[in-house]
Design brief:
alpha/beta; TIM Barrel; Lyase, Ornithine Decarboxylase, Chain A, domain 1; 12 helices; 9-stranded mixed β-sheet; Alanine racemase; binds pyridoxal-5'-phosphate
């Protein structure tokens, strides 16, 4: 067991992740395959434990951003298909083939006839069609045909998928995405009419899955919904999804502040009345955005209280003037469920550091009140002028992750 000394950590709820997979599987046709994106360390949740859940689920494949991430997935022992959604360099393609990693064609490959010969395993290639994102893929059938013919000519390559990516699947209107899907379906029909035996067709991200059942094709690629969030709560509310990550820190000091005193770097907050201010052991070096200076909110003793002053690298200050019960050592929720009542400063101090992790995990698992009292990540992200995707990705390795509700425990 790794010791816990600082009371700042995140909880990753693997049962919630498995639940979200089922919710999303129920939204698609039983024949439609599910690919889950685990890039960026599984959106910051830790790729190894997330892969363990995926390996046991009926998810068909995972998606990553780079060859490095794909190899990491294989090192974790994940045996099902892995697709690199970003670019893999020409010289690295034999490595992908050797590890049966599917890749997406990009112009960076240059002349396909001049690419290195793969080993005993063929290279699985997905070709993207650019239907309106202007990021990857062929804009015309003519271009697609030239490359496809070269790919099909090579005995060491297999054409395994054809994709597009939706730019606005979670936008206020579905017009842009609908137009992309129309173009995509049209290009697929043209390829079929030209005699191509089109392999797995995939287009929808979480937003596309939630928005329209006609957009699912043979496979969907979901990310954020699996981790518990709608891509945009205001457009596609998904109350049945359960947030997988919850972040906590603890209070290290409580002080009275008099009118006229300032708080934090730059003296950006001046007290206009007597206040009680608590210091919390988390800052921007943990991935808590500095932009939440004077605008963030945290949850303590069931109350939402404001961040005051600038977020420091390792600490932040909150106004607890209206929380009479608050004490040094109390846990605060930076986002997610309220800290379980069992997490008291006395218990934390009594536990040897090497036992704290298990104690926190077990008490989180048995806590039934936290779910009713939540500081939604979507709300915190919008205060930070960002999206839950970025928030969870940037909670970094300095913050220990505690895994709860593991499938085989
Ligand atoms: C190509 C591709 N497909 C699917 C996804 C998953 O998107 P989301 O997390 O919105 O479901 C991503 C994520 O950015 C992506 O880049």
């Amino acid at each position: 067991m790794v010791s816990l000394y600082r009371g700042t950590f995140s909880i990753v709820d693997l049962r919630a992740f498995a639940h979200n997979l089922r919710v999303m599987a129920n939204r698609v046709h039983p024949e439609t395959k599910l690919l889950v994106t685990v890039k960026a360390n599984a959106y910051g949740h830790g790729v190894a434990p997330i892969l363990e859940v995926l390996a046991e689920s009926n998810v068909a494949a995972v998606g990553v951003a780079s060859l490095e991430e794909a190899l990491q997935v294989r090192q974790c022992g994940y045996a099902k298909p892995v697709l690199v959604l970003g670019s893999v360099g020409a010289q690295e393609l034999p490595i992908a083939a050797r590890h049966q990693i599917h890749v997406t064609y990009t112009d960076a490959w240059g002349d396909i006839d001049a690419l290195p010969v793969m080993g005993s395993e063929p290279l699985h290639v997905h070709t993207a069609l650019d239907t309106g994102m202007n990021r990857l893929g062929f804009k015309s059938i003519e271009h697609a045909r030239v490359v496809l013919n070269q790919i099909l000519n090579r005995s060491d390559m297999t054409w395994s998928g054809v994709s597009t990516h939706l730019a606005c699947s979670d936008g206020p209107s579905d017009q842009h995405a609908a137009e992309q899907i129309r173009r995509f379906a049209d290009m697929i029909s043209q390829l079929r009419a030209l005699g191509y035996d089109v392999p797995t067709v995939h287009a929808s991200n979480s937003g596309g899955v939630l928005r329209n059942g006609q957009w699912h094709f043979d496979m969907v690629r979901i990310g954020i919904a699996a981790y518990g969030y709608s891509p945009d709560e205001s457009v596609l509310p998904m109350p049945e999804l359960r947030p997988v990550m919850h972040m906590y820190s603890s209070i290290t000091r409580i002080a009275d502040v008099l009118p006229g005193e300032t708080i934090g770097y730059g003296a950006t907050f001046t007290a206009t009345q007597p206040m009680r201010v608590a210091t919390v052991a988390a800052g921007y070096a943990d991935g808590y955005p500095r932009v939440l200076s004077n605008s963030g909110k945290v949850l303590v003793h069931g109350q939402i209280v404001p961040v005051v002053g600038r977020i420091c690298m390792d600490q932040l200050m909150i106004d607890v003037s209206n929380v009479s019960t608050v004490r040094v050592g109390d846990f605060v929720t930076l986002f997610g469920r309220a800290a379980p009542a069992a997490w008291t400063p006395e218990k934390w101090h009594r536990k040897p550091p090497e036992d704290r992790r298990e104690w926190l995990e077990k008490s989180f698992e048995s806590d039934s009140h936290g779910e009713q009292n939540v500081l939604s990540l979507s709300d915190v992200a919008s205060l930070a002028m960002t999206i839950p995707y970025e928030m969870v990705c940037q909670i970094n390795s300095r913050v220990p992750k505690l895994y709860v509700n593991e499938p085989n425990s």
